[in-house]
Protein 1
Amino acid sequence: MGFDYFTQFARLFFPKNCEACGRNLLKSETMLCTNCFYHIPKTKFHEEKDNILNRLFYGITNITYSTAFFYFHKASKYRILIHKLKYKGQKEIGIQLGRMAGTEINGSFFDETNVVIPVPLHPAKKRLRGYNQSEMIAKGLCETSGKELLTDVLIRQKFTETQTKKNLEARRENVSSAFKVVKPEILRGKHVLLIDDVVTTGSTLIACADEILKTEKTKVSIFVLGFAVQ
Ligand SMILES: [Zn+2]
């Protein structure tokens, strides 16, 4: 039986496609085909305390550990996953990638983190999208890592205008004071794992970390799904 015959046959019963390359999925595959799953360009930053993501925060804010699940560039097929999660309503992609990432970081420095906080969206933006994509990633990550998800401790109180046309200084100005910890008693003594979908300049993560660190005896580490490379 040829491979093509088999995939044609499978298509009749499992009409799902790989979210990265579009190939038909087999029954044993979830979201990604085996090929795309095994070739995720993982950063492995969680194995190294000093890495290029963590260096982004040196001298700016006090981040304990930082990691990203995978690298992506402009033409990467893995970038499509983030696009579908953010703009196409496919929140399940975030949950599934979060689950994979949670498994990936188990047994690393990140075991020291005990609560997970997704970067909040402004309520108006959340209503528009229907969900917070970072919260979906956090949900999946908590499922496989056993950490506690906190979604009502850090809030976004300012609707920031689009960041893309601003330089780093202007971006930082734009997001500083956008976030507020509303239940500091819950955070005291906790090592927070802060979650975002992608990192480019880090200005949003810095603003969130600065706000969390105002509560005494807290630590902040960072997890992002995608790390953009040129
Ligand atoms: Zn694929």
Protein 2
Amino acid sequence: MKKGILILFISISYFASAQVKKEADGKAIYNQYCLACHQEDGTGVPNLNPPLRKSDWVGGEKTRLIRVILEGLNEEIEVNGESYNRVMASHDFLSDKQVADVLTYIRTNFGNSAEPVKEEEVKVLRKKKP
Ligand code: HEC
């Protein structure tokens, strides 16, 4: 009985620490590759770089969001009622895991609370690319 509780405890702390690590990885990638444009708190820069804070691009459909990172974005878009028509370059040099971690980070921060993005979901979309 005692042993069972111990194993349970070890596995809970293992999963908890894996989750904390993922969050830290995502934040580090964000700080290195995204912060300069989208800002530390995800508010972006008015008329220049759209906010990630409470953005339905971030909290919405995963496929569309993953594509922004893999392919970049160059069209007129609307975020939180403001329109933007600029260019974001592709970040396809990031690994599948890095893309998943950074997207999970922005989906669970900046006022967003959407389910995480998995490495596998990035891999599938990257393969589909022509
Ligand atoms: C050089 C500046 C720049 C960098 C670096 C950059 N972005 Fe962007 N991002 C933009 C711009 C500009 C747009 C809008 C493009 C358009 O108008 O079509 C955008 C759009 C987006 C969008 C969709 C709109 C929104 O606000 O929700 C997401 C999501 C996003 N970026 C996430 C990221 C992530 C994650 C990173 C880092 C891996 C990143 N960006 C790096 C400039 C940048």
